[in-house]
Amino acid sequence: MITGIGIDIVQVKRMERWIDNPKLIEKYFHPDEISFVSSRVNSAAQTFAARFAAKEAFGKALGTGLENIVLKDIMIINDEKGKPELKLFETAQEALKKSGAAKVHISLSHEKENAIAVVILEK
């Protein structure tokens, strides 16, 4: 049973500005995400934008927003086939537990100027 759906869109230009300010990137992204995305030199801004949209979409899917969630506790990883997955830590894991959801589905996409993410929570 679906318990929540969230969607968010982020302008890639916003992440281009953030890349120039490492403190912002470090504030909102898990160190493993930063390492992965930084290796994608030609698409780093798009990749950061899609991942930030996923974090926002997760809060929307919870129905509570990101209140009391540290954004670095939400990490987007790719499986061996490239499929994105949410890996949750501490505050984000606790929020998911409180929601009653057991499974998280995620989809990311980007096209030049924008990146979008959808998160679906399931019991």
Number of helices: 5
- What CATH first level would be assigned? Alpha Beta
Shape annotation: globular
Cα Rg: 14 Å
Low-confidence stretches: none
What portion of residues is helical?
40-55%
Across the major sheet, the strand order is 1-5-4
Element-by-element helix/strand order: EHHHHEEHEE
Cα(first) to Cα(last) distance is: 5 Å
Q: What number is the mean pLDDT?
A: 95
Task: Describe this protein's structure.
The protein is of the alpha+beta class and 123 residues long. It has a single domain (2-122), classed as Ribosomal Protein L22, Chain A (Alpha-Beta Complex), CATH 3.90.470.20. The chain has five helices and five strands; from the N terminus they run βααααββαββ. It has helices at 12-19, 22-28, 31-38, 44-62, 90-99, and strands at residues 2-11, 74-78, 84-88, 103-111, 114-122. The strands form two sheets. It has a three-stranded antiparallel beta sheet with strand order 1-5-4. The protein has a two-stranded antiparallel ribbon with strand order 2-3. Helix 1 crosses helix 4 (44-62). The chain is globular. The model has no long low-confidence stretch (mean pLDDT 95).
